[in-house]
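re: ur question from the group chat, yeah i did fold both. here u go
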Amino acid sequence: MAGHSHWANIAHKKGRNDEKRGKLFGKLSRAIIVAAQTGGGDPTMNLSLRYAIDKARKASMPNDNIDRAIKKGCGEAGGQQYVSLVYEGYGPEGVAILCEALTENRNRTGGEVRNLFEKNGGNLGTSGCVAYMFQRKGLFAIAPGNTSEEQIFDLALDNGADDVKEIDGGFQITCSPDDFDQLNSALEEAGIETEIAEVTQIADTEVELDEAAARKVTRLIEALEDNDDVQNVIGNFTIPDEVQEVLNAEG
């Protein structure tokens, strides 16, 4: 999630991913491979792998693709050895940005990420320059119409949520990473479908962008997300609904 807290922005990013399904599947496969490499191929014993598989299934990734990725991670089908990296920097208007990547060639990826920052009005910083502005959290997004306010508030707070927000008829829930599995299981058992269910970085405070700033920052975010090695891009900004509508209309 690229720093967006409004439901319209969440849905917009999901739509972009749907349009680029082939590239998305490649990124999801890479995440599964790394999770299997580091914790083994059994999702009941490897929570990172379970989360990666769940995310792939939410994106309608075929089971054959998932199984191949697990085998690669376990060394049964060859494949590259990937490392996890986090790049930190500033975008236009001084927006803080975290860029999470999985790569088999850190020199190549570092050069490409630096180039993307510079070409799109930002600059890549040193380790720790913006990380202190974010907290690692479990994040859930529930589309409008999937649950009632009473049901989601009671269920979420009973299962470790630290915040529940009603946004444009949908809900956004955050929790400690330690409570993610319990809350995720509770939502599944209640039959409440989530559009997003992941452990990610969330900004402590967000800067609201006007139309000109939002256009610049979005251009950088989308350029980074289009890189094959980049898994996730997070910024400490929010885009008002009326501005997002203008950006959506522009394509």
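okk and heres the other one u asked abt
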Amino acid sequence: MKSKVKIAQFGLGPIGMECLKWAASKPWVQVIGAIDIAPAKIGVDLGKLTGIKGLRGRSTVAAVDELEQKPDLIFHTAVSRFRPAYQQLEPIVKRGINVVSSCEELLFPNLSEPRLASKLDRVCRQCGARLVGTGVNPGFVMDFLPLCLATVSREIRAIHIQRVVNASTRREPLQRKIGSGLEPQEFERRFQAGQAGHAGLKESLALVAHGLGWQLSTIVESAKAVVAGRNIRTRYLQVRKGQTCGLHQRAEGKVDGQVRLTLDLKMFLDAKNEHDAIQIEGDPPLAVVIPGGVAGDQATVAALVNAAPRLLRTEPGLRLVTDLPLGTATE
């Protein structure tokens, strides 16, 4: 890039902190500040917060209009659901600021909130802002990667995707989101209420269907608690035998009454045989397995930062990750 991109970080949780630190290492980035609502973080020097000397003199504020300079782009890592994300993002794009977000439902916002998605797209176009939701899952493993593989098939009858993740190696918010420590019935109740589970699985399925030009007649999503067979202790919490230690979540998409897409996610503490797998029933058939799987937290940070220069090369609007050109943030 010919000139540096002024960026700010919105949300200083585990992913936001790592996103900020990695972005700060890029020669094309100029960090101007961060945004977070936590009282303990507001006003704190980013050099002190991150341990990076180069960020000294920049501080955390409570709202975007309190930043000392207008950023070119904001990395948004605050919420999973599109409706609360809309409340945070609409004031940002109104200022003509571009956004790369980790909000899971923003991967394919027309699925859950078509009216709000249309409104946000309209604001982006009017104000010259670009906005995209991405990450590793959703954003790559169970949606973007299968679509890439599908490009070498002459005929696709069905796609089946599986992911097994050892959640013991992941951040605390994720371990709690998958129900660790809850009674199985309580986890399943919270999942049905939209208060637990992996967000974005239906959006991944919808993005794959969209990329293939398939009109889905129905999407069915379910989740069951994975029950601990023994006591488990992680860095963040303890789970007793018989309690929930994770989930088995599944989404199926039908086209003309037939199941054509399945996404199967197993994410629980001390899971063995971590992997990502994609099977394409087509001509030719394809079966791809990534042993060990794609490391979620590190890969999410990479997906966010690498998306920034690619997003800036697109036209203003609410974009899908499939709208962005391929590449990494090596400029």
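fwiw on the second one: The CA atoms of residues 124 and 317 lie 5 Å apart. The radius of gyration is 20 Å. idk if thats what u expected
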